[in-house]
Design brief:
This protein has strands at residues 3-7, 10-12, 18-25, 32-39, 46-53, 58-60, 68-73, 78-83, 92-100, 113-114, 118-122. The chain is mainly beta and 124 residues long. The termini are far apart.
């Protein structure tokens, strides 16, 4: 497992942008998948995006595909989630997660390392 630390959450107006960061603490990501999930109030946690480390291939949920982008900075050992055109429905606690190996995984139980989460609130 790898220790993950998220940052960058906050309050943003509808239509605004926000960038979340997920850093690997104490070691590099290695060869892993790093994913973003979110949990809206009163709802289940859902997959948002995944990036392969270190190659950088990505896939995203249909609900965010045109607005969110995930990327990585290998030198900083950090993964980012750039969120644009935010809407109130994007309000949630956002988590980054990681698992060994490659593949297409979008379920919570597919990931064994989790960050503490960061709150994103979209409201005017």
């Amino acid at each position: 497992q790898v220790q993950l630390v998220e940052s960058g959450g906050g309050l943003v107006q509808p239509g605004g942008s926000l960038t979340l960061s997920c850093a690997a603490s104490g070691r590099t990501f290695g060869t892993r998948l790093v994913a973003w999930f979110r949990q809206p109030p009163g709802k289940e946690r859902e997959h948002v995006a995944t990036i392969t480390w270190p190659i950088g291939s990505t896939y995203r949920a249909d609900s965010v595909k045109t607005r969110f982008t995930t990327s990585r900075d290998v030198a900083k050992n950090t993964v980012y989630l750039q969120m644009n055109s935010l809407i109130p429905e994007d309000t949630a606690v956002y988590y980054c997660a990681a698992r060994d190996g490659m593949g297409y995984y979008t379920r919570m139980e597919d990931y064994d390392s989790w960050g503490q989460g960061t709150q994103v609130t979209v409201s005017s």
